[in-house]
Design a protein that fits this description.
The complex is a heterodimer of chains A (283) and B (361). Chain A is 73% helix and 0% strand. With 283 residues, chain A is mainly alpha-helical. Chain A is globular. Chain B is of the alpha+beta class. Chain B has two domains: 224 residues, Rossmann fold (3-Layer(aba) Sandwich), CATH 3.40.50.300; 114 residues, Nucleic acid-binding proteins (OB fold (Dihydrolipoamide Acetyltransferase, E2P)). In chain B, the strands form five sheets. Chain B has a six-stranded mixed beta sheet, sandwiched between helices. Classes of the chains: A mainly alpha (283), B alpha+beta (361). Chains A and B meet through helix 7, helix 8 and helix 11 of A and strand 6, helix 2 and helix 4 of B.
Chain lengths: 283, 361
């Protein structure tokens, strides 16, 4: 009875959700093929072209549209994201490992860590900038204050991911390893880490992506040299050109390519395991 | 191996070991001495502290008080990986990312003292064939059956040549058929290696069948530590008799050597010290008679409920006036099974000397 009403409502809701999720991207993707350099970021498409893609790579004659300041900003963002990813994941794994046993003040410590992801970003960024300038008297850089801010922001995510993974982890394999005379440190390296590695990968992915497109904290905390999101935002303040859209499409395609490779590898390994299992059954 | 030589020497001792978790006391003042080359089974219902006992010995948990002594050395504060005590888990706890061979080789390859690669190869191969897994070395542990996993878990532990191996309900995860076969194999493997096994189980048949001696745990205390036939024939307390699942237990009053139960008054030849007075009679020591048959000795009347055929014997279930179920076992080697009418009353009789009387003597 109720499903007669509920189902269509849910269907419409889902459709709307998907629409809002993907429609902006499709609009941008279409507009990235606008002709250039005179075509703007709006419909109609004057003429289909790959001008803006070539523009990104500097393969078109100079025009009034300045090339995107990608090179250094991209390098900074990738480096910062990588540094953040490594630091946050290491910290996240270690602290989640510590939380496997209740210790004095573990409840308080938990909330203090998780608070890092709840404090408004602008406040954190502003706070770090004031702290650095007025109290510590150090210069702000993307690799110093910016980096610390990114770690503070992404560490709780890595921590929570690892906490969930370790919650489901069966500790008896570790005990088995100890009882075989293997030290706890080596047990972690040889047993625990390989088994939680998928979780570590997710934590890394989280930390990397959060850091890579972080804006509000970085705005205040990173000083003079801009990261990619700041650099791109900077070009908006003058005038928006479809080259930004083209860049967005390229990064998305790059991400999809990575995910596809991952998916293909997973499918292959699952299929191989299944094949082996089937041969066992026949034999 | 000089098996006979050290068989009477204690390989391992617990002295007054206690352990609680919060307000729950898991072990109370456990003192226990185990010889070399011995198979000890530890029997107890769930919550009796039997797993905690193993964890304390293995070094996974630290006792609140008391000492753990292995081969004359106090190891109470020695971490698990430096004890040299093997542990076999109920869920096997195999390393899922390693093959059968790598699982068995794990301790040799990653231990404190490195073992040369050809040596590892040889010892692992020998152990794998000892447990009957030759040819499966390259398989992942997801590609083998439950019984094979159990063997890998055993081989992985035994290849380290421990002096003591703790087995936490090692057969619990196997189906009944396999469990029976593995029982014999466990014993055979142990005898071949001359290691001491300490095997925790909740199954009284398993405990009695496997142990050279049986430790019966009750609420964190050792209720009895004796040979299986002693435990079976002379349970040390009503609760031990209860775990054995072979005794009808009647509560009652004891004054001097006179026990008064639901069946009337009997004279006890001896009284086994226990907190509460009770009288236990083995299932197979009770005889069923028609109501009104003249006879000697104590008896209780009860109405017949049902019977269960077990192959070599038949179990009869009766219900006494107070609603308690009384079980009688009839061995078929002693004669054809009798047939009884449901709901009809019969007299269940036993010889006075077959009754074990407990109480504050």
């Amino acid at each position: 009875m109720e499903s007669r009403v509920l189902k269509p409502v849910l269907a419409v809701y889902t459709l709307l959700f998907i629409l809002f999720l993907y429609a902006p991207f499709f609009v941008l993707a279409i507009l990235s093929f606008q002709s250039g350099p005179e075509g703007g970021p709006q419909f109609p498409i004057i003429e289909w072209s790959t001008y803006w893609y070539r523009h990104i790579f500097g393969m078109v004659p100079p025009s009034r549209v300045a090339p995107l300041p990608l090179g250094e900003a991209l390098f900074r963002s990738l480096t910062l994201a990588f540094m953040t990813m490594v630091t946050s994941t290491v910290l996240g794994v270690m602290s989640a490992q510590a939380f496997r046993r209740k210790f004095k003040g573990s409840g308080l410590a938990f909330y203090l860590i998780v608070l890092g992801m709840m404090v408004p970003g602008v406040l954190t960024g502003l706070g770090v900038s004031l702290l650095a300038n007025n109290i510590l008297g150090i210069e702000r850089h993307w690799w110093s204050t910016g980096f610390v801010t990114h770690v503070v922001y992404t560490f709780p995510f890595a921590f929570l991911v690892m906490l969930a993974i370790l919650n489901r982890f069966d500790a008896s394999v570790e005990e088995a390893s100890w009882s075989l005379g293997v030290s706890p440190a080596r047990t972690f390296r040889k047993v625990t880490f390989p088994l939680i590695f998928p979780g570590v990968l997710s934590a890394m992915l989280f930390a990397f992506t959060l850091s890579y497109d972080e804006f509000s904290r970085t705005l205040f905390a990173s000083g003079r040299d801009q990261t990619l999101p700041l650099a791109i935002y900077g070009t908006f303040s003058v005038e928006i050109h479809p080259n930004v859209f083209a860049f967005g499409v390229l990064t998305t395609v790059f991400s999809f390519a990575l995910l596809s490779v991952y998916a293909i590898l997973m499918t292959l390994s699952v299929r191989r395991a299944k094949k082996v299992a089937m041969q066992e059954d026949i034999a | 191996m000089a098996q006979g030589m050290n068989s009477q020497q204690p390989v391992f001792r617990l002295e007054g070991v206690s352990k609680s978790y919060g307000s729950v006391t898991a072990l109370r003042d456990i003192t226990l001495s185990v010889n070399g080359n011995e198979y000890i089974s530890v029997l107890g219902p769930s919550g009796s502290g039997k797993s905690v006992l193993l964890r304390v010995i293995a070094g996974f948990d630290v006792p609140d008080s008391g000492r753990v002594v292995l081969e004359g050395r106090d190891i109470t504060d020695v971490p698990a990986h430096e004890r040299g005590i093997g542990f076999v888990f109920q869920n096997f706890a195999l390393f899922p990312h390693l093959t059968v061979f790598e699982n068995v080789a794990f301790g040799l390859r990653n231990g404190k003292v490195p073992v040369a690669a050809p040596d590892v190869e040889q010892r692992v191969k020998d152990m794998i064939s000892l447990v009957g897994l030759a040819g499966m070395e390259g398989r992942g542990v997801h590609q083998i059956s439950g019984g094979q996993k159990q063997r890998v878990a055993l081989a992985r532990t035994l290849v380290m040549a421990p002096r003591l191996v703790l087995l936490d309900e090692p057969l619990g995860a196997l189906d009944a058929n396999l469990r029976h076969r593995m029982r014999n194999e466990l014993r055979a493997i142990r005898e071949k290696l001359g290691v001491t096994f300490m095997h925790v189980t909740g199954s009284e048949t398993e405990a009695l069948a496997m142990g050279d001696r049986v430790v019966v745990l009750d609420h964190g205390r050792i209720a009895q530590f004796a040979r299986p036939d002693q435990v079976y024939g002379q349970p040390a307390s009503p609760s031990v008799a209860h775990f054995l699942n072979r005794y009808n237990i009647f509560e009652g009053e004891l004054s001097g050597k006179r026990f008064t139960g639901p069946f009337g008054m009997i004279d006890a030849a001896s009284v086994t010290p226990a907190d509460k007075p009770a009288c236990a009679i083995r299932y197979d020591r009770m005889k069923v008679e028609e109501e009104g048959t003249p006879g000697e000795g104590p008896a209780i009347s009860a109405s017949f409920v049902a019977s269960e055929y077990l192959g070599s014997s038949v179990m009869y279930f009766f219900e006494a006036a107070d609603g308690r179920v009384i079980e009688v076992e009839h061995h078929l080697s002693l004669g054809q099974p009798q047939s009884f009418e449901p709901k009809r009353r019969y007299r269940l009789r036993w010889k006075p000397e077959d009754a074990i009387v407990f109480g504050r003597g």
